């Protein structure tokens, strides 16, 4: 059966079920029909015998039978006998052995050389004169109705089987049409590599439509993943191309004859700076790749988050001073958090570096940190260029830059790392921004360790 298609298997099972139900129904009908015919015949035999007494007159000199007494009706024969058992009136079946002994008021089945018979006898005695009335019906006649039905069923049943198979095939074909559409669309998507296509079944809430919707959502996720991969490769190539070009250019300059030691050292410093930039970018990419695969381990331990935030704020003041940006820290003292201190330091640094990078000259950058009984809430706010509303969801993408003019100041991986670090600690981060007025990043972290989201 497994070698057959689902449509053929369902059709076969449907046909077998319908045939079984029909056969069961026919057996029941035949049985009930036979019992009903037998009961009707027996009632008719009894009634004919009892009703005949109104046409039989018993006198002292014998019995007289009216000529209009009906002696045959619907396969039942009636006959009248005197005291010695000699026939007075009526008829019996031609093959019936009329010597069968009388039995008063008893309906019985008798077998003789002529066949099987139902026999009913009734007797009345008046002034010592007895008269017997006998009704006889052939068992074969009673079974004739069932035999006729069986013959009819033998003719009709094959056509019924064909009709059931055809109906099952058509119903199954119609029911599985959406499945074939899903298969065809999936095949075309696979052959054409067009993940933008969707399975169009129309409105519906049955299981097949639910399956189609799940496929469409899966195609959507695959399309988004492939698009992100393509964008990632393109952006990574762009980011790595610039330092690579600078390194190659400086190497060529350093290798030229006649270059002074000072010029060579300058070229080497430039090469070193670009190599460090590439190394930092690759380190971040490696960490994000490990995070994506679930192999980046969190080294959780209790530490003073307030002190860590003060250290980060102090370090960033020196970087912000180059642009005249004032860094302000409003940090609640004594906050102890159980987490990965190195990663959380990187998270705070990335947020503040982002604020300095996109802040306005001589502007302000504010770091806040506070805790309640269960969570820590922090924020980093700047008054820089801001982010357009349509780009708020894009800032978490790797290599995405809010302002292309700042692309030389970073690889665009910082916020991706921030989001992963916060979520890996069981927290959440949001962003609010107004173009031209600044941006606020707000994060929350649980004080107590939660179930690890990344496995080592």
What does this entry look like structurally?
The protein is of the alpha+beta class. It is 50% helix and 21% strand. Strands 3, 4, 5, 6, 7 and 8 form a 6-stranded antiparallel β-sheet that branches. The protein is rod-shaped and about 165 Å long.
Secondary structure: elements and pairs:
Blueprint: H1 6-51, E1 56-59, E2 62-65, E3 72-73, E4 76-81, E5 87-90, E6 106-112, E7 115-126, E8 129-138, H2 139-142, H3 144-175, H4 177-192, H5 207-255, H6 261-293, E9 301-304, H7 305-321, E10 326-331, E11 336-339, H8 341-358, E12 364-371, E13 375-382, H9 414-424, E14 428-434, E15 438-446
Parallel strand pairs: 10-12
Antiparallel strand pairs: 1-2, 3-4, 4-5, 4-8, 6-7, 7-8, 9-11, 12-13, 13-15, 14-15
Helix pairs in contact: 1-3, 5-6, 6-9, 7-8, 8-9
Total number of helices: 9
What proportion strand?
A: 15-25%
Structural class: alpha+beta
How many E strands? Answer: 15
Catalogue the unreliable spans.
Answer: 406-410, 451-456
Based on CA inertia axes, which overall geometry fits? Answer: rod-shaped
Oligomer: single chain
What does the average pLDDT come to?
A: 81
Radius of gyration: 51 Å
Distance linking N and C termini? 46 Å
Helix and strand element order: HEEEEEEEEHHHHHEHEEHEEHEE
Report helical residue fraction. Answer: 40-55%
Main sheet characteristics: 6 strands, antiparallel
